[in-house]
């Protein structure tokens, strides 16, 4: 797996690189600015790009905008975004382009090496990895949407785990229920969110995006 790391903090940037290299992962390049990151991605054609949300010069949204641009240039590029805080508007902006091969983690998760590596591999394999803390905080801010109020507590649990990127089997294991029970809950979620079957829309993706977008924007 070839990786480019975009992080303006040199200690964290090199720390992540040192964490990945012993795992037989190829850190092709590191970058301290969004522009350097995009140039490195063009030059090295990595499998995964790890982006900090806030980068120079303004330290606002340069990193997330570079991640969106990198995905525009290379739709097959997996992107894992790291943020010091839950910034819902940035998460939604990135995810609305499609959730395959995307991750959004809090930086503190990097210190939990096994969890971080699991998320990295999941994203590289085309999955989605949303930090549980991000999901939890978004849920507390999602009360404006009346359709979400239709969900039972168990259905909310299932949707939250869907938003983390877990499949049905992993959700069943986490909640200690059967796969059949999870399937039933998901069908109910689709119905309560008014997500009818269609060839153009993946209802699972639509449910997760609806859940994220229902939260008030936080800049």
UniProtKB/TrEMBL annotation:
Keywords: DNA-binding, Phosphoprotein, Transcription, Transcription regulation. Residues 2-122 form the Response regulatory domain. InterPro entries: CheY-like_superfamily, NreC/VraR/RcsB-like_REC, Sig_transdc_resp-reg_C-effctor, Sig_transdc_resp-reg_receiver, Tscrpt_reg_LuxR_C, WalR-like. It comes from the Bacteria. The keyword Transcription regulation applies. PROSITE patterns: HTH_LUXR_2 (PS50043), RESPONSE_REGULATORY (PS50110). The modification 4-aspartylphosphate is found at residue 52. SMART domains: HTH_LUXR (SM00421), REC (SM00448). CDD domains: LuxR_C_like, REC_NarL-like. This is Two component transcriptional regulator, LuxR family. Residues 144-215 form the HTH luxR-type domain.
């Amino acid at each position: 797996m070839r990786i480019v790391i975009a992080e303006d903090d040199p200690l964290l940037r090199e720390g992540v690189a040192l964490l990945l290299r012993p795992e037989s992962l190829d850190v092709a390049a590191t970058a301290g600015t969004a522009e350097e990151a995009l140039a490195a991605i063009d030059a090295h054609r990595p499998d995964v790009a790890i982006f900090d949300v806030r980068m120079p010069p303004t330290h606002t949204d340069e990193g997330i905008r570079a991640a969106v641009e990198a995905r525009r240039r290379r739709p097959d590029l997996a992107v894992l975004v790291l943020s010091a805080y839950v910034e819902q508007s940035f998460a939604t902006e990135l995810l609305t382009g499609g959730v395959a091969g995307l991750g959004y983690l809090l930086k503190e998760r990097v210190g939990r090496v096994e969890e971080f590596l699991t998320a990295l591999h999941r994203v590289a394999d085309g999955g989605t990895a949303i930090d549980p803390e991000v999901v939890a905080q978004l849920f507390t801010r999602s009360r404006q949407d009346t359709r979400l109020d239709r969900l039972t507590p168990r259905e909310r649990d299932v949707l939250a785990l869907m938003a983390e990127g877990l499949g049905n089997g992993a959700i069943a294991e986490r909640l200690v229920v059967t796969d059949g029970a999870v399937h039933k809950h998901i069908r109910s979620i689709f119905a309560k969110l008014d997500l009818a079957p269609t060839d153009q829309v993946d209802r699972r993706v639509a449910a997760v995006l609806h859940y994220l977008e229902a939260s008030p924007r936080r800049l």
